[in-house]
Amino acid sequence: MEILPRAGRRLSAFEIGELGEIERTTLRRFMSTTAQRLRLLQQLRLSDTQRALVWAGLVGLLGALVSVGFRQLAQQAQELFWGVPGDPARFADELHWARKLFVPALGGLAAGLVIRFGAHLAKGQPSADFMEAVALGDGTIRVRPSLVKSSASLLSVASGGSIGREGAMAQLASMLASWVGRRRDLPKPRLQLLVACGAAAGIASAYNAPIAGALFVAEIVLGTIAMESLGPLVFASVVSTVTTRELLGQAPLFETPAFELVSPLELGPYLILGAMLGASAPLFVRTLRAADTHAARWVPSVPLRLCAGGLIVGLLSLVRPEVWGNGNPQIGAILSGHGAAELVATVLLFKFAATVACVGSGAVGGVFTPTLFLGASFGALFGSIVQRMGASWTASPSAYALVGMGAFLAGATHAPLTAILMLFEMTLDYGIVLPLMLASVTAYYTARAIDAGSLYSAKLATREAESARSQDETIRALLRPNPVTVPPNASFEELVAKFGSHRHNYLYVVDEQQRLLGAVGLHDIKPLLARPELARLVLASELMHTEFPCLPADAPLGVALERLLAHDGERLPVVENESSRLLVGALAKRDVMLTLSLRRSA
Q1: Which of 423, 441, 461 is the last residue of a domain?
Q2: Does 300 have pLDDT greater than 60?
Q3: CA dihedral 443, 448, 450, 454 (to 10 degrees)
Q4: What pLDDT shows up at residue 21?
Q5: Which of 389, 373, 381, 423 is nearest to 403 (CA)?
Q6: Same domain, 12 and 81
Q7: 91-107: per-residue pLDDT in tens?
Q8: 553, 584 in Cβ contact below 8 A?
Q9: Beta sheet of 485-486, edge-to-edge order
Q10: Which residues are CB-contacts of 41 (< 8 A; sequence separation ≥ 6)?
């Protein structure tokens, strides 16, 4: 009776019967234990998507911790600079004029010196922010340059610079994500996604807005809302927000009165407000660009340029101390209805000038929150005019301030979805959604019609060119080296051990020259676990699939995706070419899908 092939011949039932009873019992126990272990491993095995969520959750936790830490350090440094707790604008009357004038200048000078001497500490390492690392780079963000930039941002923010702290928080969170991903030796597309998750965690922690944090990165940085990337971004943002709320509390960022659409006629003024802010946003963006370009020509020295920017802020603060900081306290005051229209108009002009001075000087920080402040001020002024024209059918100016924040943000960033959801999450008021959607979309299309550039387009200007050059890129850049292999004479016990330790669905069978001969699937060994007498006689060559699909290293990404989608596993082996079949690595389906989704978005 012929049972199984081995070494080119057939084994008989008599040969199998030569096994002793004790040996057969031992084999049965071993196989039973092995079968249970493999079943457990199969149930516990995480797919590529599940592993991506696990790493996104870890990055979200780290991003929240570093963001909260930066926030606390900024508050302590601010108290050290100004000698008063909390917002220094609240104590402006108690501060000497010299402190108002020179503290921002000294802070700028200190930030410039940190950048100057920090370059030596970084030892020539490139200083890439998270947008460049994700959209244009390979996901690498070096630790030392990021710490230098974040330290400079800390000094600028704490000394009253008219910039936001969200930039440094997102940078630090992304830096940690890049560090974790590089320690795990993740391939380029997964490292880029992990860095994007870090940025989303930082933004979500800064604004207590998990959905907006994820959409900010998806819409602005990645340029795609494909589920391959959006799922991990949302997961990281949620973990970051939950952690931040546990540490700092769950209150919304701004306390606002209940919003109500008084009459459908109000939609007309909201539409006009969106168009006006959409037309103003390109002017704001162009002014920031011009200031950045010309200031570097006029004052080449970084420390002196930052000092000059701080001095301008100090001069403006002698008249209106509300120009200090990112504008969060002033936004809260506007939304609460405090301040006459004349005062809001003055603060709007001075804040605009202070923000231009800081950005032009090269201060490291974000412009997200100052943009919200400018939109809130303009909206409140517009709302005051509308209310005077028809108080019976319109809401208060604070309602227009809320809508103005979202509309100006949508026009400046060209990210209307982010603007809509961020304002909703920051206020937790559903009544704002309809006019906010109308004004934000109107602002977006108006701004795009005037200028295709946005606040972040300069950093991402080369994305299209880079994408065009890489459209024909082969899979060689994405393959994972050193896949799990076995020789053709590997025993059944070796196969089980390999499946148990590496948790793959297929093992690749190679000869001594590393030529691909075939593959053994996990499902191929399961029936033999119940027949230990036969299993011990089986070799890898007798179980392998010789017609197993593979990919040549020069195959285009589109061809690779087609074969991966037709394959039931998550990976395919990659050979140098189909004639030699020299195994050079393996390609994961998720890596290809991530790469192609980012290319399409670009």
Answers
A1: 461
A2: yes
A3: 100
A4: 52
A5: 423
A6: no
A7: 888 888 999 999 999 99
A8: yes
A9: 485-486, 506-510, 516-521
A10: 499, 500, 503
Q: Range of 324's domain?
A: 49-461
373-400 pLDDT, tens digit each: 999 999 999 998 888 876 667 778 888 9
Q: Are 507 and 548 in contact, with CB atoms under 8 Å apart?
A: no
Which one-letter DSSP state was computed for residue 480? B
- Domains contained in the chain, number: 2
> For residue 34, what pLDDT is reported?
58
Q: State the chain's mean pLDDT as an integer.
A: 82
Six token digits for residue 464: 């299209």
Query: Is the model's pLDDT at 461 over the cut of 60?
Result: no
Same domain as 543, residue 415: no
Average pLDDT score over residue span 594-602: 61
Q: What angle, rounded to 10 degrees, do the helices at 589-601 and 557-566 form?
A: 140
Q: Quick check: helix, strand or coil at residue 12?
A: strand
- Residue 18 three-state SS: coil
Residue with tokens 């292999």: 485
* Of 524, 523, 486, 510, the residue nearest 575 (C-alpha): 510
Token pair listed for 102: 């020179």
Q: In what order do the strands lie in the sheet with 571-575?
A: 551-552, 571-575, 583-588
The answer to the question of residue 497 being in a domain is yes
**Which one, of 216, 211, 127, lies nearest residue 170 by Cα?**
216
Instruction: Give the CA-trace dihedral at 348, 350, 351, 355, to 10 degrees.
Output: 140
Residue 427 maps to a domain: yes
CATH code: domain of residue 483: 3.10.580.10
Assign residue 71 the CATH number of its domain: 1.10.3080.10
Q: Are 435 and 493 part of one and the same domain?
A: no
Q: How far apart are CA 240 and CA 380, in angstroms?
A: 32
- Residue 90 in any domain: the answer is yes
Inter-residue contact 351 to 309 (CB < 8 Å): no
| Together in a domain, 89 and 198 | yes
Would you say 205 and 407 are in contact if contact means Cβ atoms under 8 Å apart? Answer: no
For residues 249 and 388, the answer to whether their CB atoms sit within 8 Å is no
258 lies in the same domain as 390: yes
Last residue of a domain, one of 461, 482, 513: 461
Please compute Rg for the chain using Cα positions: 30
Verify that 433 and 506 share a domain, yes or no. no
CA 89 to chain centre: 33
The answer as to whether 467 is a domain residue is no
Q: How far apart are CA 166 and CA 497, in angstroms?
A: 48
Which residues lie closer than 8 Å to 569 by C-beta, 6 or more apart? Answer: 505, 506
**Is 0.85 surpassed by the pTM of this model?**
no
340 and 215 in a common domain: yes
Q: What is the pLDDT of residue 10?
A: 38
Torsion of CA 122, 126, 132, 135, to 10 degrees: -120
Looking at the fold, whether 214 and 346 belong to one and the same domain comes out as yes
Structure tokens at 177: 């994500």
Q: How far is CA 246 from CA 206, 249, 250, in A?
A: 14, 6, 7
Distance (Å, whole) CA 138 – CA 187: 9
Residue 529, CA atoms < 13 Å, CB-side half-sphere? 18
